[in-house]
Amino acid sequence: MIQHMMNNSDAAGSASGASSGSASSAAVIVQDLTVVRGGVPALDRLSLAVPRGHLIGLLGPSGSGKTTLMRAIVGVQVVKSGTIEVLGLPAGSRALRTRMGYVTQQASVYDDLSVRQNLAYFRRIIGAPASDIDRVIERTDLGSVAGRLVGSLSGGQRSRVSLAAALLGDPEVLVLDEPTVGLDPVLRVELWALFRSLADDGATLLISSHVMDEAKRCDRLLLLRDGALLADDTVQGLLQVTGTDDVEQAFLRLIERGKPDLRPSTETESEAER
Amino acid sequence: MNLTRTFATAGRVLGQIRHDPRTVALLLVVPSLLIGLVAWIFVDTDLFTDIGPAMIALFPFIVMFLVTSISTLRERRSGTLERLLSMPMGKGDFILGYALAFGLLAVFQTAIAVSFAVWVCGLEIEGSIWLLFAVAVADALLGTALGLLASAFARSEFQVVQFMPLIVFPQILLGGIFIPRDQLPPALEAISEWLPLSFAIDALQAVAADSESAEWITAKILVIVAWIVGSIVLGSITLRRRTP
């Protein structure tokens, strides 16, 4: 596993470079993105790259701009300046709408329809084959409640319905905003196993969380604070640089340092300051 | 525009409502109950003959406006609208899907309201009952279309509730129910000439009294239909895929 991560760490160096260069290896390229919400900058000249086929964790305290970044990548956020490319196309392009899956923080499904009716509707909007409904029900383990009204389900089940809807049509890029929030540990482990298997099948997953523990399951981490990127590294790399064995500690150390950047070029510099 | 998505949306909206029998019941009988109440108020006078047709224009119009604007707003707040707009869902498909679903409900609601007014409350209709029904349906559809337009503009429930007095009340006040429109001050009369509800009330009163030709009434219906189409188009344009 560690070997696996080290390999990713190597790949990471070139992926970071990808923000200025080769588009083929990156699923999402964000450059100089500035988003203003309620008069204050929610994201400030943010640049990053999300490599293809990986599980990328987007971490940061609430209010750090995670949701805004995800909305911008999906193309439903008004953007002030900067560019976002997804799969080589500008974010929000018509052609991307069938190739991306998006799960909002709240379960955005219809409470007054059954699980199956919800999925049947979204399937028709996407234009995915009818067999997809059973496939995503099985993948999200909702078979036993498929006929029930979503409003009568538990919070965890509802969020899985929302996730199931995003899996329709086998999207190449999945943007999941806190998909495991409020779930019990067993369910969380199951969902992360699902995310891993989706990435193994070639999908790119950008998953936000404020539970630092979950970070360990990601291939790479993006640490966001006050709309700026604090770190863009593998878990292993992050722990090494900060000299801890705990992601939460690593995050706190980065904040203490006050150096809002940990990309390779500045790593040594911030080390020296310590 | 895509018919599959439009019809899928209309079917989904109707499916949601079907799971809420109380809403269906309220939607279908409330206008009739209100018409019955008005008939009862004026039972000892012959005023109901004059204002009864206007009531057929009024109550379905208000009910459809409210129900439509709130339900699309609910979609916005639940996050489902954002999800749909991140999918290959056309803005026009969305608005038209809602218009079809609530339009169908409006047809049933109007059929019940017209029947109730004529056969239970004894509203005298000199002209064609079918023409009366046609005007009433157009009028209820107008309520749906304006409700969609209002919710495309509104960003919160509070705003939608404010749009109701803003968009609906002036049309009622200037529609000729309180005093005939030709007795209004000239400026207000000129404004009332343009308001869609005025056309509906004029047409319904004309059918009830059989005072105008079928062509004249059809012309009024066409103006209402133009308002419906205009509202739906404007609502589709106002709906934003990207929000702040």
Automatic annotation (TrEMBL), chain A:
Keywords: ATP-binding, Nucleotide-binding. Residues 28-251 form the ABC transporter domain. It comes from the Bacteria. SMART domains: AAA. The keyword Transmembrane helix does not apply. One of its GO terms (molecular function) is ATP hydrolysis activity. PROSITE patterns: ABC_TRANSPORTER_1, ABC_TRANSPORTER_2. It holds the Pfam family ABC_tran. The keyword Transmembrane does not apply. This is ABC-2 type transport system ATP-binding protein. It comes from Agromyces cerinus subsp. cerinus.
Automatic annotation (TrEMBL), chain B:
It is a multi-pass membrane protein. Coiled coil: none annotated. It is found in: Cell membrane. GO terms for molecular function: ABC-type transporter activity. InterPro entries: ABC-2_transporter_component, ABC2_TM, ABC2_TM_bact-type, ABC_2_transport. Residues 11-242 form the ABC transmembrane type-2 domain. It comes from the Bacteria. Keywords: Antibiotic resistance, Cell membrane, Membrane, Transmembrane, Transmembrane helix, Transport. One of its GO terms (cellular component) is ATP-binding cassette (ABC) transporter complex. The chain crosses the membrane at residues 24-43, 55-73, 94-117, 129-153, 160-179, 217-239. One of its GO terms (biological process) is response to antibiotic. Pfam families: ABC2_membrane (PF01061). Belongs to the ABC-2 integral membrane protein family. This is Transport permease protein. It comes from Agromyces cerinus subsp. cerinus. The lineage of its organism: Bacteria, Bacillati, Actinomycetota, Actinomycetes, Micrococcales.
